[in-house]
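Trying the structure run again after the queue cleared.
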Amino acid sequence: MRRITTTGLGHTRVLNDLLQNLFITELLVPSSQLWVLSPWISDIDVIDNTAGQFKTVLPGMPARHIRFTEVLIELARRGSDVRVLTRDVESNTAVRQRLEDVGGLSARPVVKIRPNLHDKGIVGDRFHIQGSMNFTFHGQAVNDEGVTLTSDPHEIAGARIAYNAKYQV
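Done. Tokens:
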């Protein structure tokens, strides 16, 4: 288990590296099911591919920062059952539209609105990250936040069972 806190003084390398490593791992071996819970969500940079170092993992992607929606769409394309829960607020509209308007994919991320959602986290087959952070620019770089990462299979299974029971999508 690992706890990461941010100070609200800009991007935190530890947090950005954590997100990047988790998503690169997911792209290499996609989870059967990936839950993303974020009441407020934006298309934050999650992979720094500016040197093109991930071209074998993301063939055809240019050498630039890779955004959250691009990773979620690619994971769905690779067979992961991606489920995104968020609130129906104007600031979430762009991300919701990007995830819902993906053409040519039989399996695409499922986006559901939960008006009172306050839970935040991501759970895949090999990890569960949870805490106070929304997946937004402010959550990533401005607010004081705390997230906990676990790779304990029992905790991951418990979170997945709870998410499936509570948030039936």
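The helical segments are 13-28, 68-77, 93-100, 137-142, 153-166. Worth checking whether this holds up in the mutant runs.
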